[in-house]
Amino acid sequence: MLSKLSKMTPLKQTLIRLLARPSAVVAALLPSRRSIRVMRRLNRIILSAPQLLAIAQKIEEQAPCRVLIFGVGHDSLFWHRLNRNGRTVFLEDDEGWLRKVTAKVKNLQAYAVGYDTEQKDWQRYLGNPALLVMDLPLPVTERPWDLILVDGPAGWCDNAPGRMKSIYLAHQLVKPGGDVFVHDCEREVEEAFCERFLGRENLIREIAAPQGLLRHYRILSPGPKRPPTN
Ligand SMILES: C[S@@+](CC[C@H](N)C(=O)[O-])C[C@H]1O[C@@H](n2cnc3c(N)ncnc32)[C@H](O)[C@@H]1O
Predict the structure, then answer these.
(1) Cα separation values, 203 from 48, 197, 206, 214, 218, Å
(2) What domains does the chain contain, in order, with CATH numbers?
(3) Cα 139 to ligand 1 centre (Å)
(4) Distance between Cα 220 and ligand 1 center (Å)
(5) Is the CB of 147 under 6 A from ligand 1?
(6) CB distance 155 to ligand 1 below 6 Å
(7) Residue 94 in contact with ligand 1 by CB distance below 6 A
(8) At what angle do helices 33-43 and 49-62 cross, to 10 degrees?
(9) Beta carbon of 46 within 6 Å of any ligand 1 atom
(10) Is the beta carbon of 160 within 6 A of some atom in ligand 1?
(11) Which residues contact 227 (CB under 8 A, 6 or more apart)?
């Protein structure tokens, strides 16, 4: 995406930069298929337009509501604006990236967290949920969340933190009957942790895209999950 932008004429690049923010504001006010498609392209968002729309519709149905998002990105302004008068909180482990995003999006409620995991050790964590517990800021743990989006931390190589903790925590922190969306579920680790902690029985829908499969779960019984009996 970035290389695409650098291949454009300077005028086109300037136009895209000028329109990126307003397009996110408009899409958050009127989240339609079209406004989201435009906003996604101008902001170089990785989630696909149908994936963004599916999550946005769930937020709109419940707004103002409580939304927790693992990972900040070019979509953060959109989520922040969409949940008008609600509470939208972001968790991010990459401090440089967090500074970059929060410098652009004023009043974003985002916290730096440390996962202390490496993706290559994922099988050890799968069998030992006690290792997945972590300290979180009080505003994250004091009340359950209506909707949680897991699109972080990075999980694209062995020494990335991986999403073992964020998927586990989503199950702990969502309200009974709340929605959990997880991106990149075509990957081995996301797939294994979703199966183990979110459960196939809670899976509502999958939305495929060239850059990652999104799964939508409705969690009727959040909190501690027993190991499978077989
Ligand atoms: C997988 S990206 C997805 C962001 C957004 N939801 C989207 O669809 O565009 C989110 C994670 O990637 C990591 N990351 C680091 N540098 C990044 C960058 N330059 N752009 C995007 N994500 C970055 C961050 O730690 C962040 O938690």
Answers:
(1) 19, 11, 8, 11, 7
(2) 47-219 (3.40.50.150)
(3) 23
(4) 29
(5) no
(6) no
(7) yes
(8) 120
(9) yes
(10) no
(11) none
- Give the H or E element holding residue 20: helix 10-29
pTM exceeding the 0.70 threshold for the entire prediction: yes
Q: Which amino acid is at 102?
A: T
Mean pLDDT, contiguous 10-residue spans, the chain (230 residues):
68 89 97 98 97 98 97 98 96 98 95 97 96 96 98 97 98 98 98 98 98 98 63
Q: List the beta strands (DSSP E) in the chain.
A: 66-70, 87-92, 109-112, 145-150, 174-182, 203-207, 214-219
Q: Could you identify the residue written with the tokens 């000028």?
A: 18
Contacts for 89 with CB less than 8 Å, ≥ 6 apart: 67, 68, 69, 109, 110, 111, 139, 140
Closest atom, ligand 1, to C-alpha of 152: 27
Q: Rounded CA gap, 110 and 92, in Å? A: 7
pLDDT of residue 229: 46
Centre of ligand 1 from the C-alpha of residue 152, in Å: 7
Using only C-alpha atoms, the chain has a radius of gyration, in whole angstroms, of 17
From first CA to last CA, the distance across the chain in angstroms is 45
For residue 61 the two structure tokens come to: 């149905």
